[in-house]
Amino acid sequence: MEILFQILLIIIPAGGIFLTVALFLKRQNEKEVRHLQIELRKERQNFFLPSRVESYQRAVLLMERINPNSLIMRIHNPGLSAKAFQADLLKAIRDEYDHNVAQQIFITIPAWEMVKKSKEETIKIINLAGNQMGSIASSTDLASKIFEIIGEVGVMPTEITVDFLKKELQELF
């Protein structure tokens, strides 16, 4: 019995020390894991930040390029019919969008949804103006009608989206 008592006198303190060391090492390991997670997050942000910034820049550029004011000035050809000019405007919007569609990887879902809606609203404005043109209307007539509709709309969806994109980008910093 005395041997059992002596063994217990050795095992109980050793077990206590073992548990203390195990708990200490577990806490230390958890701290190191948290520290590594924070470091990995920082590295990931540093790695992806330039791509995200570029994507926001390109999304803003997309909005500026499909804004009817700049789009008309860039593409206008006085020799075209209204229908041909309408087709050129719509093609330019689709081409700009298709060229930048991959940017959605690096910007937030709400931001990309706004980009898509702005594109769709711009197309609606052009089609609305185009549908009001007669068969002999010129590209200048269509451009005038688009500018008239823009005046009624007030703030263009592309401008609202640009403001949203700028605010989101500033939140990254």
Task: Describe the protein in words.
The protein is built from 6 helices and no strands. The protein is mainly α and 173 residues long. The protein has a domain at 51-171. Helix 3 (82-100) packs antiparallel against helix 4. The longest helix has 65 residues, at 2-66. The chain is rod-shaped and about 115 Å long.
Indicate the percent of residues in helices. over 70%
How far apart the termini lie comes to 71 Å
Mean pLDDT across the residues is 89
Which residues sit in consecutive blocks of at least 5 with pLDDT less than 50?
Answer: none
Class based on secondary structure composition and strand pairing: mainly alpha
The SSE order reads HHHHHH
- The share of residues in extended strands comes to under 5%
Q: In one word, what is the shape?
A: rod-shaped
Q: Radius of gyration from the CA trace?
A: 31 Å
Total number of strands: 0
Report the major sheet.
none
Continuous helix count: 6
